[in-house]
Each structure stands twice: as structure tokens, then as C-alpha cells.
Design goal:
The strands form 2 sheets. Strands 1-2-3-4-8-7 form a 6-stranded antiparallel β-sheet, sandwiched between helices. A 4-stranded antiparallel β-sheet has the order 6-5-9-10. Helix 4 packs antiparallel against helix 5. The two termini are 23 Å apart. The longest helix has 13 residues. It is of the alpha+beta class.
Length: 185
């Protein structure tokens, strides 16, 4: 997948899509919520608020193509994260992100709508996502940055939506002729 097609919808367009759709949602005390939305070729899992007149979509958001088995994790880079991303470039260091049950490559990008962002890819069926859908917490590390999302009220609001998103991203089980799970050929 090319970098240009990795994030098919910019944050501004995602905000319009979110405002125009009204699926069932769960709200936290401050109005933040998780929401799953269909976009051209995939699904978005976003945290945002409808109680304020803003296009703020939260710090971390997720994208997948249905049944792909993979989830792209996107983050709006804060000052510390931008410095670490710049250090990767300056030192010509492998930009690895580590998380529970695996590792991936961090890919920085720039958006006119949100400034510097980053993305990395994970398995939809990994330990990290299973923990996320149960607890609302997800953590990862790249460079000296240790991200721990889920300490705020947004994390626990709408965990059913997180599970719904994961279910749409998972690869379907392959069944053999005996009705059990078989190996893909």
C-alpha cells in the first residue's frame, strides 16, 4: 500500500463524515465517545466530542479495511513525539514502535489539517487490541516516547464500538471440509 493511500481520508473530511452519521454511541462524562464509521474502502475508529463546536477528533485514531486482519494506528504528534521522529531521521535509525505482542515501523507524515502525525500497523487480532477493547487502554513505545492512552474518560466510553471495529477488521476464519479450521493454501 502506498503512503498516499494509507490514510484515505484527512481529518477534516472525517469530521464531516462523522457529523453526517449518527450510529449508536456511548458518551463519557465530558462528551467524548468512540465511534465507528464507514469510509470509502474501510472503517475508522475515532474518539471525538459532539458537545463542543470543534473538529477535534482525539489524539489517536484507527483505520482498517474490512477483513484485512490489520489495523493502522494514527497519532497526532505532540512536541516530544515530533522530536523523537526527527531524531530517527537525523540519526538514520530504524523507526521501530514496540507494543504488547509485537513491533512495527513508525511512519511520520504531515497534514495541513493537523500538522505532524505518525502511523504504524498492527494485527487486528493481537494482544494489544484485545486488551484495548476490554480496558480502553493502549500503550506503545518508540524512541524515548512511551504512550499510554486510556487514562482519560474517553477510553472507557463506547468500548462496544472498539469491539465492533475489531470484528470488522478481523480476517474471516478459513474452514476446512470437516467443518473445523483449516490451513490456507
Amino acid at each position: 500500500m502506498s503512503r498516499a493511500s494509507a490514510w484515505p481520508v484527512h481529518r477534516g473530511l472525517a469530521a464531516i463524515v462523522l457529523v453526517l452519521s449518527f450510529p449508536s454511541i456511548g458518551y463519557s462524562e465530558d462528551g467524548w465517545q468512540w465511534r465507528v464509521n464507514k469510509v470509502s474502502d474501510g472503517r475508522l475508529l475515532l474518539a471525538f466530542t459532539e458537545t463542543e463546536a470543534t473538529d477535534e477528533l482525539g489524539t489517536v485514531w484507527f483505520y482498517c479495511r474490512p477483513a484485512s486482519g490489520m489495523v493502522d494506528v494514527f497519532g497526532a504528534a505532540n512536541d516530544k513525539e515530533r522530536k523523537v521522529l526527527a531524531d530517527f531521521v537525523r540519526s538514520n535509525t530504524y523507526p521501530k514502535v514496540e507494543f504488547e505482542g509485537g513491533a512495527s515501523i513508525v511512519e511520520p507524515s504531515f497534514s495541513e489539517a493537523g500538522g505532524w502525525e505518525y502511523r504504524f500497523r498492527m494485527s487486528a487480532d493481537g494482544a494489544w487490541f484485545n486488551k484495548f477493547k476490554q480496558t480502553g487502554r493502549i500503550g506503545f513505545k518508540f524512541g524515548s516516547v512511551v504512550a499510554d492512552y486510556g487514562k482519560d474518560p474517553i477510553a472507557k466510553s463506547g468500548l462496544k464500538k472498539v469491539a465492533e471495529f475489531q470484528a470488522q477488521c478481523l480476517q474471516p476464519a478459513i474452514t476446512g471440509t470437516s467443518g473445523g479450521t483449516g490451513a490456507q493454501r
